[in-house]
Task: inverse folding
């Protein structure tokens, strides 16, 4: 990812877009943060937020015409917030902050002609930047029309206090100056930049006389028709015009003063007057804020507790601020435990991923975050801008793999599991008995074969009885773990093997039982013309004798890999209706379904998050669940949820217990191997090697495990065959340590990149494993040691 890629990703996330109120404010006051402080009754902090952005805050907060209220999102669910009133409360009840920070003095000076709000704002902003400022004011005191405002809007004392702060910043004020047109020529020759406030001169420039972006005065006959602005007179800026309808606008005058000050700063520092100014003044925002579940609330009415008419006291102000929606998007974070866990949003994660790949050398602190994404695509569906964390994280994984920056430990276990499934103990491709080629081939996938092997045999027998042209069987992994791990090389190798077997079967159409396999084939190997078993049921009908029915309605969980496969999802529902199995939809279903925690190999990278995802999903309904995916079924059941596989309702078989946990990693290997052996024997009449020690699948009858050890092995991704290998090597070679106090042995074995350690006891020919763990560091002194 380069910097341009990062910028492109950042633009697609709108979380950091300004809320409507802040975008509509010409000064971009942080209204959201202000409301949080007002809600808490912290008026000092609320005033501090205003002072951070507002010039002359003791004045402007009292008289602002608050255009923010016109766009307040709360008006779509009640009345808009009384932002103007709340600002007055904060200024009146909050303690003033310290003198505004002034930057070190610059060797430039500017003149400000006028004494109104625009002129005072321009002087305020330039003084804070370190410029020497002189205000030329025609009246005895600066303030202009502000001094004529009624006391309930602005007290003269407040105005004088703010002007006092202005002079404390070093601003010089010359009062009683006659602002004749000649004064402009005088100050232009003695100052580096000049601001002319509307009304300061006898014939003021019109708005159209100034550039809309920079407020640079253009033309050479603006003041009483005299040539006071010669061509190239780029040092004169103006502002402070009346608002719509010719009425004065406090916020408009302040905005003009600020824009002019920014232009004068650029001019005096030699910067471009026009570059990167699109965010000044009122702007548009792309922010999305959902109002789902928001109750309409009316505006709090002041109680008349001695305050001026229409003003809030402190408690009333806090109640009014509490109506604020604190507008933000976070639609993806609301539905994703993974995004919520890392306490950010996609734009922030894009920066972290960029830093992880492009800046940080050697230490990749965001690896776990990158690898935990389930790649399920829910974030894209709920995002108004369709930001895809899945695409971002998968791109990062591929990039890191390609540059050898992704630790092998991140996905090694899953890739080894895939290798087993594509190896001799499970993989096979057979045409229908008695045939050389077939019209169809059933591809059950590795998860159904491990969790519900009886369904594989039942579905295959059913398809052979209903479809003509021959139905073959292919058992192996589709390669999705390699795709999720960013190992395109391993996926291409696996898909190449699959394609060769498919061609040998006569190019049959592939019928999948697994939605992940279906999605992978459709996107990466479309020549397989894959179709879901659920869609096939719509053509073949269902068996005459079906499985058990639940005693009450079930909640239907859609696998996340069917998010874009509406025909498949509907086919599952048609199957349930045909079976008279009542079901209910979950709040997040269909296109918006949630992952079970298996997707993207999240369980390998961050098991705790994977379990949290599954438990949150399981808690969405008190009903039993039904799932059309074996892994979904097992992941949800592991969190204590009663979950049926939809195939349980279709085919009779062993007693079904929806509360049963799925098999562990080692048992999955054994079940797959036993299924292959049983199918070869029962369908094709071939003699098959039963799983045992020679296949590394079964647990020897002379090995036992202390309480809790099997659960520990599962958590640590240690297979029984690895434990067996450690003990077998130790007993064969004698390389083991004895703890005389307990009588237990300790041994290790490093068959691959992982070193396995096992603590065990030998009594009466029985091996009892008491502890086991693994690591990926080299054992000192073991280099070159015979590991056989």
Result:
């Amino acid at each position: 990812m380069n910097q341009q890629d990062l910028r492109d990703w950042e633009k697609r996330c709108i979380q950091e877009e300004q809320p409507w109120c802040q975008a509509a404010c010409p000064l971009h006051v942080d209204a959201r943060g202000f409301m949080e402080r007002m809600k808490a009754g912290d008026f000092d902090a609320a005033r501090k937020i205003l002072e951070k952005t507002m010039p002359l805050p003791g004045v402007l907060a009292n008289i602002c015409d608050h255009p923010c209220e016109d766009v307040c999102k709360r008006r779509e669910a009640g009345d808009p917030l009384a932002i103007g009133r709340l600002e007055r409360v904060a200024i009146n009840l909050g303690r003033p902050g310290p003198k505004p920070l002034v930057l070190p003095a610059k060797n430039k000076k500017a003149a400000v002609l006028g004494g109104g709000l625009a002129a005072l704002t321009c002087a305020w902003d330039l003084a804070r930047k370190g410029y020497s400022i002189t205000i030329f004011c025609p009246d005895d005191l600066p303030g202009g029309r502000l001094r004529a405002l009624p006391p309930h809007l602005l007290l003269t004392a407040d105005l004088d206090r703010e002007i006092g702060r202005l002079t404390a910043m070093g601003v010089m004020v010359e009062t009683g100056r006659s602002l004749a047109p000649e004064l402009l020529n005088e100050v232009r020759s003695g100052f580096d930049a000049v601001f002319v406030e509307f009304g300061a001169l006898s014939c003021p420039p019109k708005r159209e006389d100034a550039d809309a972006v920079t407020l640079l005065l253009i033309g050479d006959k603006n003041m009483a028709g005299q040539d006071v602005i010669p061509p190239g007179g780029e040092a004169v800026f103006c502002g402070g015009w009346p608002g719509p309808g010719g009425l004065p606008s406090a916020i408009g005058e302040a905005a003009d003063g600020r824009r002019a000050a920014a232009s004068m700063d650029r001019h005096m520092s030699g910067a471009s007057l026009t570059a990167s100014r699109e965010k000044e003044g009122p702007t548009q925002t792309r922010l999305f804020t959902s109002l789902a579940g928001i109750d309409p609330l009316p505006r709090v009415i002041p109680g008349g507790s001695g305050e001026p008419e229409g003003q809030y006291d402190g408690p009333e102000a806090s109640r009014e601020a509490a109506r604020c929606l604190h507008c933000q998007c976070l639609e993806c974070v609301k539905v994703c435990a993974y995004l919520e866990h890392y306490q950010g949003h996609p734009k922030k994660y894009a920066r972290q991923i960029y830093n992880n790949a492009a800046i940080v050398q050697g230490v990749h602190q965001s690896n776990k975050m990158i690898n935990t994404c389930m790649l399920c695509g829910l974030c894209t569906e709920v995002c108004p801008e369709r930001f895809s964390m899945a695409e971002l994280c998968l791109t990062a994984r591929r990039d890191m793999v390609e540059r050898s920056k992704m630790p092998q430990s991140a996905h090694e276990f899953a890739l080894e599991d895939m290798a087993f499934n594509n190896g001799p103990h499970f993989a096979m491709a057979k045409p229908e008995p008695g045939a050389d080629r077939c019209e169809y081939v059933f591809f059950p996938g590795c998860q159904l074969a491990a969790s519900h092997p009886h369904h594989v045999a039942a579905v295959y027998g059913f398809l052979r009885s209903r479809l003509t042209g021959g139905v073959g069987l292919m058992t192996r992994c589709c390669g999705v773990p390699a795709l999720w791990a960013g190992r395109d090389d391993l996926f291409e190798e696996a898909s190449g093997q699959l394609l060769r077997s498919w061609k040998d079967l006569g190019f049959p159409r592939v019928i999948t039982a697994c939605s992940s396999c279906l999605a992978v084939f459709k996107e990466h190997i479309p020549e397989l013309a894959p179709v879901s078993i659920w869609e096939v049921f719509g053509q073949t009908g269902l068996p005459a004798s079906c499985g058990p029915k639940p005693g009450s309605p079930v909640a239907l969980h859609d696998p996340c890999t069917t998010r874009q496969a509406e025909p498949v999802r509907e086919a599952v529902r048609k199957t349930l209706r045909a079976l008279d199995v009542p079901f209910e939809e979950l709040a997040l279903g269909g296109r918006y379904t949630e992952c079970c925690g298996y997707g993207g190999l999240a369980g390998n990278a961050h098991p705790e998050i994977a379990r949290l995802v599954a438990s949150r999903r399981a808690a969405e309904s008190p009903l039993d669940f039904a799932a059309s995916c074996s892994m979904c079924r097992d992941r949800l059941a592991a969190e204590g949820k009663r979950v049926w596989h939809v195939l349980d309702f279709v085919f009779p078989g062993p007693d079904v217990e929806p509360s049963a946990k799925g098999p562990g990693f080692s048992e999955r290997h054994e079940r797959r191997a036993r299924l292959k052996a049983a199918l070869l024997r029962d369908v094709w009449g071939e003699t098959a090697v039963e799983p045992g020690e020679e296949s590394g699948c079964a647990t020897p009858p002379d090995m036992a495990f202390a309480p809790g050890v099997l659960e520990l092995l599962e958590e640590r991704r240690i297979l029984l065959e690895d434990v067996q290998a450690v003990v077998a090597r130790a007993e064969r070679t004698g390389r083991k340590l004895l703890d005389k106090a307990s009588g237990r042995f300790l041994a290790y074995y490093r068959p691959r990149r992982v070193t396995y350690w096992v603590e065990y006891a030998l009594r009466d020919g029985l091996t009892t494993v008491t502890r086991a763990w693994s690591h990926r560091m080299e054992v000192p002194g073991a280099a070159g040691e015979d590991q056989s």
